[in-house]
Amino acid sequence: MEIFNYMEKHDYEQLVICQDKTSGLKAIIAIHDTTLGPALGGTRMWTYASEEEAIEDALRLAKGMTYKNAAAGLNLGGGKTVIIGDPRTDKNDEMFRAFGRFIEGLNGRYITAEDVGTTEADMDLIHLETDYVTGVSAEFGSSGNPSPVTAFGVFKGMQAAAKEAFGTDSLEGKVVAVQGVGNVAYTLCEYLHEAGAKLIVTDINKEAVQRAVDAFGATAVETDEIYSQDVDIFAPCALGAIINDETIPQLKAKVIAGSANNQLKNPEHGDLIHEMGIVYAPDYVINSGGVINVADELAGYNSERALKRVAGIYDTIEKIFAISKRDNIPSYVAADRLAEERIARVAKSRSQFLQNEKSVLTQKK
Ligand SMILES: NC(=O)C1=CN([C@@H]2O[C@H](COP(=O)(O)OP(=O)(O)OC[C@H]3O[C@@H](n4cnc5c(N)ncnc54)[C@H](O)[C@@H]3O)[C@@H](O)[C@H]2O)C=CC1
Ligand SMILES: CC(C)CC(=O)C(=O)O
Fold first, then answer.
1. Which of 43, 65, 110, 145 to mutate to test the pocket of ligand 2 (most atoms within 8 A of CB)?
2. 308 is catalytic
3. Distance between CA 125 and CA 93 in Å, rounded?
4. Which of 5, 10, 93, 177 has the most beta carbons within 10 angstroms of its beta carbon?
5. For ligand 1, what atom is nearest to the CA of residue 290?
């Protein structure tokens, strides 16, 4: 990858490569756009096949955060970190402390939280070195692990998508295929089970599958069988790029609504599912519950206020479908338009010179 070409093409601000030999930390912090405020986005720990793949993932995820935070109405820009390594075997306390110091060195341009492969305990270690971290334990006045709130937001967004596709937002009797039953999806399955939906699940982790089978009477299928299930709704809740040339012809679902980031391999895949009449709840909108929740910490966490805002994902998804129909564009384009128009409006309204700028980190809600 030609890094500067790629950064210029997608208008990235900054890429920070962090290395600490003692702890084995190899982290990449990508900051996409800070027009709206400091970049907020989680830290993913994953076993990447190559350094290039890790950099590409950090960059793609950071851009997604710019759009997510903008569409959610947050005064925050977009960034993300990936740490190269196996979260089950390669973690140690010093790694996260060293990482915390790299974040501190950015002086508030980037704020982190959990993502795939990182936990509340990891955030607590980062918090020993910097205040620019959210999703730390409740004892620090924080909101804790964002996954359950992300799941609540996905559930609300799925209801809105069901209304668009089936004329009712009731999920009773609907069959939902859930790909990946990790932190977010397990709680999502709880909501769906309670709402009377039938679940088909898959995961590369057999224990995670068994847990969902035992708790919700879910039907388990192999990982490559999940796309072709005869279901009403497909909920991708594992990793990205799963809506692609190979999977689209297999899909029978009328709705795609799940937590995974970067679900469309390429924009053309969003066009294709639109042409097929599949109702797609744009990933970064439906999965914005976690970031809305942790962002609330920046003004002193209030769970009631945060959850009310997360429930608003239903309305945002409805609004996106309305723009999609009005302008005859796929829903992912409608979501991008919503985010880009907000960033442009805020940039214009904040363009005049000020001697001492007020920081979003010191603003009260
Ligand atoms: N945790 C959060 O609050 C948020 C998470 N997300 C996104 O939601 C997705 C899930 O996040 P978490 O639940 O936190 O992660 P997680 O790591 O707890 O769960 C992901 C699950 O997917 C499984 N998986 C991985 N590859 C798979 C494959 N090829 N087929 C089937 N299963 C596979 C894993 O074994 C794991 O159980 C990720 O894309 C994440 O970026 C987005 C917004 C917020
Ligand atoms: C705080 C996290 C849940 C934010 C993030 O990284 C995401 O939404 O993907």
1. 65
2. no
3. 7
4. 177
5. 3
* pLDDT at residue number 299: 86
Residue whose C-alpha is closest to residue 100's, from 129, 137, 133: 129
Closest Cα to atom 6 of ligand 2: 42
Tokens coding 279: 């109702």
- The answer, yes or no, to whether any atom of ligand 2 lies below 6 A from the CB of 64, is no
What global pTM score does this model have? Answer: 0.95
What length does the chain have?
A: 365
Can you name the residues that pair with 139 across neighbouring β-strands?
none
User: 118 CB less than 6 Å from ligand 2?
Assistant: no
| Calpha distance 168→159 (Å, rounded) | 8
Residue 100 has pLDDT above 70, yes or no: yes
Pairing of strands 233-236, 175-179: parallel
Q: Which protein residue's CA is at the shortest distance from atom 8 of ligand 2?
A: 291
Of 114, 136, 292, the one to substitute when testing ligand 2's pocket (max ligand atoms within 8 A of C-beta) is 114
| For the CA of 290, the nearest atom of ligand 2 | 3
